[in-house]
Amino acid sequence: MNLNAQVPGGPLEQKWDKHRFDLKLVNPANKRKFEIIVVGTGLAGASAAASLAELGYQVKCFCFQDSPRRAHSIAAQGGINAAKNYQNDGDSVYRLFYDTIKGGDFRAREANVYRLAQLSVNIIDQCVAQGVPFAREYGGLLANRSFGGTQVSRTFYARGQTGQQLLLGAYQALCRQISLGGVRMFPRTEMLDVVVIDGHAKGIVVRDLITGKVSSHAADAVVLATGGYINVFYLSTNAKGCNVTATWRAYKKGAFFANPCYTQIHPTCIPVSGEHQSKLTLMSESLRNDGRVWVPRRKEDCGKPAAAIPELERDYYLERKYPSYGNLAPRDISSRAAKEACDEGRGVGPGGLGVYLDFADSIKRLGENVIRERYGNLFDMYERITGENAYQVPMRIYPAAHYAMGGTWVDYNLMSTLPGLFVLGEANFADHGANRLGASALMQGLGDGYFVVPYTIGHYLVTCNQPKPPASHAEFRRVESDVKAFTDRLLSIKGKRTPTSLHRELGKLLWEKCGMARNEAGLKLALQRIPELREEFWKNVNVTGEGTELNQSLEYAGRVADFIEFAELLCLDALHRRESCGGHFREEFQTPDGEAQRDDQNFAYAAAWEYQGPDKAPALHKEPLVYEAVHLSTRSYK
Ligand SMILES: Cc1cc2nc3c(=O)[nH]c(=O)nc-3n(C[C@H](O)[C@H](O)[C@H](O)COP(=O)(O)OP(=O)(O)OC[C@H]3O[C@@H](n4cnc5c(N)ncnc54)[C@H](O)[C@@H]3O)c2cc1C
Which atom, in ligand 1's list, is nearest to the CA of 70? Predict the structure, then answer.
């Protein structure tokens, strides 16, 4: 299959405008004849559902939480980027574009990233108009701070609750449409399969999580905005419910999965404290605006209290290694540097798996009140979890699994290889290459939902010649019976292991063999072990309760089954990519000073995997990454 990314011709800056003109429009009176399914109510899904309904389409929107506003996006802390250049510090659309391409280690599609940078300015206007309470300067203008991998301040924020405030804005727009009848909302409903009719995605099969009822919904097009898969690692900063099920099941129906090995390990998380934990807590990257990262110079000092280690005996390793970016070096680089320091035996805290994030200098310079105003809720959260007051002693942080750059392969229109299936937000692979810069996920989710899919989906609807099938179509009944058989099978095993214990084992394996660093031997070992774990799951999982009631053990078991299958693809992708780039660090491919060594000659492509059937190896398709505007260069933050 020839992967056609549908990137428009012409100069980079004009591609999106030209494309929007070339796309066919749907007559306003005809829009209400089309029905669109949106799965997901995070920033990507809520913004898409609200915008599509506002245009006049009939929208059905689904989420598994009890309310759309409980989507994982609510957890985002630090901010959202936009090239407004309010600071007059040298920012521009081109600089945001370039920083993002470079931050992603030159493994993203140029045209998508440029469009994202262009749209960033509209997103802020849209959100301000909705009343999102962004932080403001004394004079009333919106305030900015910096995030990793940039030298300008372009991150808009609402304290440490940016995701919550943005989601309330999108949710408000969604509610307006629910009350007007433009959107029918289905909370507590899990999509368990895509229905494909004559090669096009024309509906979904869902399970009502309260009653267990399995039913179908037909539509003219389906939008997935179902978030990322990083919980495959079991321990992560994501909400416990985040999972890969929707995109994985779409993959099995023909939507290629791209770059699954591009996973982001975030450098500033509260360290793991023991086996009992079910999730990890992020300390926003924004803290690195004012916090300095260090470890003791000498191993022998690691057991001493931080205050007992004099200035000269401290190693501010990010400032030392990356003087231009210092504590704001990008995430992949900062995470590896923390791992390196701990591997050398210079880590602090229990097990030596921690580094300091120290605010003493900033508090001395700015006063505790300023720091409290900027990050108060994060300091409170840290104290509640660790019992330590970070105004008085440095925070202890360690990297943790955080974000998925890989996802469903989509073209410039955000349509997958399954016609009629659009994928937005963290669920797609599109814009961040091998490493995402901080504060760019919210930008992408809202850009996709408010400004891209409302244009591109119309073109599909008027050109596809595939009307919505009747709900009586036999394919819906067939997929429903597959879904029922899957849940019945889970309930019938009655084995000895909980879904949690199998998930935890999978996560540990992945963290060790395919986490911050990977190598051929480790990946091969993981690829041997994962099928065994899959077998163990299907023989020995114990799902309690029934299928006709609220049964969270059943929901979770289905998600774990998908994670186990998906983990194999993740490791296969990591094994085949014999280079290091961004979050994918293959130990065999590094420069003499330990930096990632790309191989542009052989790997400057997006890897899109096609499902070939159970127990068959997936087929690899390559989308070459052609750079017209930027030159591929060695990424340096020194
Ligand atoms: C702690 C934390 C802090 C972060 N801070 C920032 C930040 O400051 N800036 C930034 O840019 N990014 C940040 N991120 C990343 C960002 O929050 C996410 O990438 C983004 O919110 C994802 O949005 P989304 O709409 O794609 O998916 P989500 O918000 O994950 O929403 C997914 C939706 O899909 C639904 N869903 C999923 N599967 C199914 C199914 N099978 N059936 C029905 N519904 C389904 C869910 O119910 C949910 O409504 C942070 C991430 C974390 C973990």
Answer: 49
The C-alpha atoms of residue 185 and residue 525 are separated, in whole angstroms, by: 44
Taking CA atoms, 37 is separated from 54, 60, 420, 478, 493, in Å, by 14, 5, 11, 20, 33
pLDDT at residue 274, as a whole number: 80
Amino acid 430: pLDDT: 84
**What is the mean pLDDT of the segment spanning 215-223?**
98
Mean pLDDT of 336-359: 95
User: Please, what are the domains in the chain?
Assistant: 12-76+104-128+163-265+403-463 (3.50.50.60), 266-401 (3.90.700.10), 475-605 (1.20.58.100)
189-197 sheet: strands from edge to edge: 189-197, 200-208, 214-218
CA–CA distance from 448 to each of 45, 125, 132, 597 (Å)?
Answer: 9, 15, 19, 31
Q: Ligand 1: which of 73, 166, 287, 554 to mutate, judged by most atoms within 8 Å of the beta carbon?
A: 73
Which residues contact residue 209 at a Cβ distance below 8 angstroms, ignoring those fewer than 6 apart?
A: 64, 188, 189, 190, 550, 555
Sequence-separated (6 or more) residues with CB below 8 Å from residue 132: 158, 165, 166, 168, 169
Per residue in 302-325, pLDDT tens? Answer: 999 999 999 999 999 999 999 999
Tokens of 484: 């029922």
Residue 148 pLDDT more than 90?
Answer: no
**534 HSE (CA, 13 A, CB side):** 16
Give the pLDDT mean for 487-514: 98
The rounded mean pLDDT for the chain is 96
DSSP secondary-structure letter at 618?
Answer: P
> CA-to-CA distance for 469 and 548, rounded, in angstroms?
28
- Tell me, yes or no, if the pTM score tops 0.85: yes
- For residue 476, what pLDDT is reported? 98
Q: From CA 281, how far away is CA 397, in angstroms rounded?
A: 10
- What DSSP assignment string belongs to 383-449? HHHH---TTTS-EEEEEEEEEE--EE---TTSB-SSTTEEE-GGGB--S-TTSPPTT-HHHHHHIII
The per-residue pLDDT for range 227-240, each reduced to its tens digit, is 999 999 999 999 99
pLDDT at 354: 96
Predicted local confidence at residue 637, as pLDDT: 84
Ligand 1 centroid – CA 296 distance (Å): 36
Cβ contact 479:193 at 8 Å: yes
Q: What is the mean pLDDT of residues 566-588?
A: 97
Region of 404 (left: φ > 0; alpha: ψ -120 to 50; beta: rest) is beta
The count of other CB atoms within 10 Å of the CB of residue 281 is 17
The closest-lying atom of ligand 1 relative to the alpha carbon of residue 236 is 53
Q: What is the DSSP letter of 197?
A: E
pLDDT over 90, % of the chain: 93
Mean pLDDT of 79-104: 96
Binding pocket residue ranges, ligand 1, CB within 6 Å = 39-45, 62-65, 71-73, 75-80, 162-163, 190-191, 225-228, 237-238, 242, 245-246, 282, 402-403, 425-427, 439-442, 445
**Cβ atoms of residues 47 and 127 within 8 Å:** no
Residue 286: predicted pLDDT: 86
The preferred substitution site among 66, 442, 448, 453 for testing ligand 1, maximizing ligand atoms within 8 Å of CB, is 442
